[in-house]
Amino acid sequence: MKIQDSSAEGPRGDHTSAKARKWLFAASGGILVCGLTAMLNWPGAALATPSKGFTSDFTRSFFERIRVLSGTDREGEDARVKIIAKDPSDVYVVNNTVAAGGYSGWHTHPGPSVVLVKSGTATVYDGDDPNCTSVRYPAGTGFIDSGGGHVHMVRNEGTEPLVTVAFQIIPTGALRRIDAASPGYCPF
Question: What is the DSSP string of 60-94?
Answer without folding.
Answer: EEEES-EEEEES--TTS-S-SEEEEE-S-EEEEEE
